[in-house]
Amino acid sequence: MLALTGCLALSACSGGSAGPPTTTSSAGPSATPSAAGSTGASSGPSSAASSAAPSAPSSAGPVAGAPVVVLDPGHNGGNAAHRAETGRPVPDGRGGTKPCNTTGTATDAGYSEHAFNFDVAQRTERVLEAAGVRVVLTRPNDVGVGPCVDVRGTAGQRADAAAVVAIHADGAAPSGSGFHVALASPPLNPAQAGQSRALGTALHDALRGAGFHDSTYLGERGISLRPDLAGLNFATRPAALVECANMRNPAEAAVVSSADGRQRYAAALAAGILAYLRHP
What we know:
Distance between the termini: 22 Å
Structural class: alpha/beta
CATH class of the domain at 74-237 and 253-278: Alpha Beta
Radius of gyration: 16 Å
Strand order of the largest sheet: 4-1-5-8-6-7
CATH topology of the domain at 74-237 and 253-278: Aminopeptidase
Largest sheet: 6 strands, mixed
CATH architecture of the domain at 74-237 and 253-278: 3-Layer(aba) Sandwich
C-alpha cells in the first residue's frame, strides 16, 4: 500500500456505538496517525482479514498505468475515547460545519462498524493490489483517532487518486436491510457531476452482482444523493461512499460479523472499482 505524508480521510454513516444509532452521520478525524498503511494493528474480528486470500475477477488482467485508489475505512477504534476531539466542528464543504468524526455504529452483539470498515478495506486493498492498483488507506490501523471528515474529503487530491471509496456500514431500524451508495449532490465540481456517478454505478452494479440487494430504507435503487457528507463534498476526484449493510438487521449483522461475509463485500467493492478504472 502506498504511504503518504500525513493522514488521509472521508466519512459518514451511523452515530455513536453507545445506544441506538441514527441512520446516517458524518465522520472524520483530526489526529494524524504515524503512517498510512495496512500493516498497523487492528483489534477484534478485523484481525481475521489476513486469513482470506485476495481474489480478483479471473477474466480481468492488470490495470494499466498503476492508478492510485484511496480507500477510506470510516471512523476509527480510538474515537470513542476522544469524543471532545472528534466532536469539534469542522467545515462540511458547503459553508456549514459537521463533527470531526463519530464512533460509528455496531451490531447488537457488539461488533463495531469501525472494525468492519477497516477489515473490509484491507481485504479490498489486497484484491486491488493484485490487479496492479496502488492503494492508499486513510488510516493505518483500527486503534487511532480520526482523521476528520474534511481531511478525509481531500484525500483523493492529495494522493492524486483515480478514485476514492469510503467504506461504511449503517445503523438503521432493524427492519431495514441492503446497501446503498452515497454520492455528493448537488455536485460542486465536474468530478462530482460525472465521474463520481460512474464510480457509484460501478460499485452498485458489482454489489448487486455479488448477491447483495439495494437498501430497503434509504436512497433510490441503491443510490443515495447527499448534500451533507463532508467527505464527499470536499472531493475533487471521483468519490463515492458505500454503506455496505445495516448492522442492526439480524441477518445482515451475521454477514458483516463473519470473515466470509467481509470477504464477499471486499471482492464486490474491488470488482466495482476495477470496472470503473477500466471504463471510467
